[in-house]
Predict the structure.
Amino acid sequence: MNFKTLSSNKKLTILLFLICIVVAVFFSINVSNKLKHIRTEGWSENTQPFNNYEYYDAKIKSDFLVATDSSHFNKYNALFKYFAQGAFEYKSNENAFISYPGAISSRGRRVNALEGFARFFALAASWLNAGNSNIIILDNGSYNLKETLKAGILAGTDKNNIEYWGDINDFDQRIVEAVDVALGLWLSQEQIWNEMSLQEKNQVNSWLNQAINKQTVDNNWNLFPVIIAKCQEALGYANTENLARINTVYTNYKTKHYLGSGWFDDPPKGIDYYNAWSIHYTLFWIDQIDPNFDHEFIKTSHSKFLSFYRYFFSENGFPIMGRSICYRMAAPAPIISGALLVPEDISPGFALNALDVTWNYFIENNALEYGTVTQGYFKNNLSILDPYTGTGSCLWSLRSLIVAFYVDKQVPLWSVKKVPLPIQESDFNITNNDIGWSIIGDKETQTISLKIDKNVKNSMHQLNNYNFINQLQEFVLEKPSRPDNTKALYYRPEYSTENNLFLNKRNKKNY
């Protein structure tokens, strides 16, 4: 074809076509470069459930649910081994990461795998602290907890290792996970920390130290550098500047966010179960690590908190609301710690009952799968999964077990007779004026309802479902796209153990 002999119209058409191709290529390259910054790290990767996981999922239900009152240690021993099995199956080559199956968070797959390691490590450390065996016997061999966890910590804190956890920045999820690493080291210091060389201890401390002076979210995150620095101090790495900083952060946090009667405001959402599974959980450990830090306030606020919170639990769960729903099995953690911290308020038998009904309820309804905790209320449910929640996140549910193994070493827990919960004895209707919540129990139906004063005129908002639009956005952008369910989780006037918000009417065990 001779371009010179073509008509003007044809020349113009060809020119426009070429321009369109150039623009399309430029646009494609530009969009591709932008998507690289949007795309979640590790989005295209996937972890498959380990072979024969169905057997272990069925076995834990059998071992845990059919156990008698005289064998509580056996059932919780079986539960720990279930999680140890999952950790062993999904651990990385250098042991610094545990990559569970499931939907990843906006933080990316490596951070999710760090979560998997850190959150299991805290449980394993409490297990070791209680004097339990370091060797876990599995069907396909044995698992040396101490050696595996120590290797993982050293790999994760070594900048020259392929499995280095990464530098810690402002508002970094690694700050959260550094808490469990530090706590785990404090709990297992005889088994792991004391076995490290001075060079190894310096390396681990250097990584933890990055978390102390970083900016955090202005909520329960304020307590994270406090507990990390206290663990460092207890392990022989006291830093005067760090301790001065955390004293200021801690004082400001209490002044700004403490509401009274043991409850804290927790921005950006407000009052929710983070009071239980993060705030009072962390305060308890700070007090155990350094009883001289703020003992009177921690003990008194714990007592006041439990005077109301003790009414929330039943054999049908508790009236859950708020974010991070998949942390649900951690809800009884402050009741367990109360048996040690405020024994005049919480007996070991009461604590055991609250722990037991919670784990029984969720295990019976399939909240454990693939050797880990599901990402939902019962089964996996992306409708209620926050963008920051990934494959290892839901192991915050283990926090009630972490406290339980620790408490049992000092106050016999597994061998005591259960003490009835309030709902098992009578009806009740109790109001906490400091937070505007009322808790109402009906003994006959075993239903517990939570009523929120400020929401009294609101609608009973329903969940927005994870749908095709969410899936399409995830396909294009390669990042989590989950529905905003703030209204359903925070603005309803009432939440109940009937939990119609989460349960499919046709099959109440669907979620």
User: Anything to note?
Assistant: The radius of gyration is 25 Å. Strands lie at 135-138, 141-144, 258-260, 263-264, 368-369, 372-373, 428-432, 437-442, 447-452, 494-496. Residues 27-35, 506-511 have pLDDT under 50 and may be disordered.
